[in-house]
Design a protein that fits this description.
1 helix; about 10% helix; 3-stranded antiparallel beta sheet; about 50 residues; elongated; mainly beta
């Protein structure tokens, strides 16, 4: 199974999104541009009720 990962980088924040092969969101998160916060995103899951 393959995934598409995208990062939208802004001056003070970024948005990380992951889609599966069928274009379903499996992860999304808005982060401050802080390396400690960004590195912690792999420990969190996408919550479908968050949409």
């Amino acid at each position: 199974m393959g995934y598409f990962v995208g990062i939208d980088l802004h001056g003070d924040n970024n948005y990380i999104g992951i889609l599966d092969q069928e274009d379903r969101k499996v992860f999304k998160r808005k982060n401050r541009n802080d390396i400690k916060e960004i590195r912690g995103t792999d420990k969190q899951r996408y919550d479908k009720e968050d949409e």
